[in-house]
Amino acid sequence: MDIYADIGSIKNVGEKRRELLNKVGIYTVRDLIEYIPRDYTDRSIITPLKDVDEGEEYTVRAKVRGDFQLLLRGKLKIIKTIISDGSAEVSVVWFNQPYLKNTLNKHKEYLFTGSFKAVNGRLTMTAPDFDEVKEDPGLNAGRIVPKYRLTKNLNQKLLRRLIYETLGEAEELIEDFIPKYIKDEYKLPGRVFALKNIHFPENAESFFAARRRLVFEELLILQLGLLALKGEIKKKESGIKFSFFETDRIVEALPFKLTKGQEEVLDEITADMESGCPMNRLIQGDVGSGKTAVAEICAYIAYINGAQTAVMAPTDVLATQHAQTFKGLFSKLGVEVVLLKGSLKAKEKREVKKRIAEGKAHIIVGTHALIQESVTFKELGLVITDEQHRFGVNQRRLLTSKGENPHTLIMSATPIPRTLGLILYGDLDISTIKTMPAGRQRVDTSFVNSSYHERIFKFILKHVKEGRQAYIVCPMIEESAAAELKSVKAFVKDLEETCLKETRRGFVHGKMKPKEKQETMDRFAAGEIDVLIATTVIEVGINVPNAAIMVIENADRFGLSQLHQLRGRVGRGSYQSYCILVSDTKGAEAKKRLKAMVKCFDGFELSEKDLNLRGPGDFFGVRQHGIAEFKLANVYKDRDILKEVQALSAEIWENDRFLERPENRSLKKRIKDVFGEAENSSPGL
Ligand code: ADP
Ligand code: MG
């Protein structure tokens, strides 16, 4: 057996099973033994039959006492018998498994695990899993039992058996790539032990030791791999070397003076751009810190060096807004900015693409389709992506691989605590805009319950009469998009009964076509709509300086970082602005979070709090990637391990950067393995 052998080559896996296993991402023997359970049930406690209750799952140790009856209910074949453990007798049924009558032997004892139901006043065990009682406990009962992520026609029993048998056979092939000195220092068990116990824990203690070891290795490989990627990028001499950095013309064209924070970040960027190696830098800055201006100056530098810049935004609406901002500034400087987006007519698209290919368009703004689509650049020198925190490591690698090592600049509006930044963006250099433009007013924030609605609406009306605009955000409160839409529509309708009926209202939601959404956003930006009611689709990054009020309904549904983002949509002009968080939550935790919003205005501090209160899943918003790339580690729950790993990685990076020492070679091999398969390009080790 070979650890990389196709899964179809092992015993008991034919073509059908092979396909099923492929469906859940298992292609090789290695994939199979590293297929981590999603959950466990503790079936190690045996309960006497006399003590079981209805509705719960138990494991009992019993013998078959009755005959097997076969009952037919339509298409359903029910097989029924009686089991006894000496303390009591109960009926057992299985469905559509008539062959069990030949499997279960009356002279043997079994562990049955399943739940009990009252049928005609008698407790009946339904469709239990069972294993024969032997010296070695079985895989499905009488122990802590793993539960795997399944697909149709792939069941737990089969997976358990395949994994168990393969683990036994592959044992000698499992390489422990964590060097002994690390295992000793951090008290980690060996890899064979860890894999065996993550699948079939002997007891709670060995499970935790196994998990710790596997989390440790996952984080360590990722962290070292990212550092190596960064090292590799740095080593590349083939980056485009820029030589001209005379930015006076653009700086004078900006309607404001750069902040110290913006200047510092620009210095770091300039150093990258003249180094001759491709820049790969993340700019973090709180909402409103002025990342756009930084991006504009960078694009200008590319321009005076004869290179094109691609600016990518996550959505159409944001791309359009960026294009407008860039055009506003660059038209004065004779630099051509074009917008390339999906909704353009075929002819326009062709025209724009031609200008890009000929190098007539200098700055190209679009969604990330810009890079995926068949767009050819004459001289792509800089790629700027906005709000990039939505993309994971692999997507990021894909983007940069498109050009001839262009410089890349990634703008993130979600401040990330340092430890997390290191593991999520370990391949990037990180710059932070530390200061906000002067004269920014603090957005006056309050937290109220829904009994305040009438007062809130009057407050909005008063400001609308003074010429201001307002957002009202209703988060997704229903399970389905359809139900969500209904609830927002109902809310919009209810508003017609309030004093806001005097205002001009607009409505955007996730189900809308991009074009309609854009039209409504444009009308809001142009001041033709006073109150914009939105589901969460109002993008982070939308800039309407005249908007001064942000009302967030069911505010407890959001994470602090998201709330902070939303709040950042107001307070962009010179008007005093307000954020009103509305929630009837009874939860102590939720109240705590909302109160934090009232007091705290620092995005970094809030993201740190968010992480501690809710964990990373929420911190990044639903399904925002990066995090999902971890198999086992949870950077929130495992933050202590993460810290250990980071200290260790820094030490290794310091002493043996290219992992050339004999004791570190096994680490190097594993990194190549993991990164190679994920991205088709391994770090330069
Ligand atoms: P973000 O970092 O959230 O993307 P923006 O780039 O959209 O922030 O900037 C927010 C607002 O601040 C914009 O209206 C922009 O014109 C303004 N701004 C940016 N830099 C400065 C500055 N140095 N001084 C004053 N205003 C600035
Ligand atoms: Mg922005």
Topology overview:
Blueprint lengths: L14 H9 L5 H5 L5 E4 L14 E8 L4 E5 L2 E9 L4 E7 L4 H4 L5 E11 L2 E11 L11 E4 L8 H15 L9 H7 L4 H9 L4 H32 L12 H6 L6 H14 L6 E6 L5 H14 L3 E6 L2 H15 L6 E4 L5 H13 L4 E5 L1 H4 L7 E7 L6 H8 L6 E6 L5 H7 L4 E5 L10 E5 L4 H13 L3 E5 L7 H15 L9 E4 L5 H12 L5 E4 L12 E6 L7 H8 L10 E5 L5 H12 L3 H12 L1 H4 L19 H17 L9 H15 L6
Parallel strand pairs: 5-7, 9-14, 9-15, 10-12, 10-13, 11-12, 13-14, 16-21, 17-19, 17-20, 18-19, 20-21
Antiparallel strand pairs: 1-8, 2-4, 2-6, 3-4, 4-5, 6-7
Helix pairs in contact: 4-6, 6-7, 7-23, 7-24, 9-10, 19-21, 20-21
The chain binds adenosine-5'-diphosphate and magnesium ion (MG).
Adenosine-5'-diphosphate (ADP) binds next to helix 10.
Total count of helical runs of at least 4 residues: 24
Strand content: 15-25%
Low-confidence stretches: 617-628, 677-682
Mean pLDDT: 86
The quaternary organization reads as single chain
Structural class: alpha/beta
Order of neighbouring strands in the sheet with most strands: 11-12-10-13-14-9-15
Write down how many β-strands occur, each being a DSSP E stretch of 2 or more residues.
21
The coarse silhouette is: globular
| Each distinct ligand | adenosine-5'-diphosphate, magnesium ion
Rg, Å, rounded: 30 Å
Largest sheet: 7 strands, parallel
Tell me the distance between the termini.
Answer: 28 Å
Q: Helix coverage percent of residues?
A: 25-40%
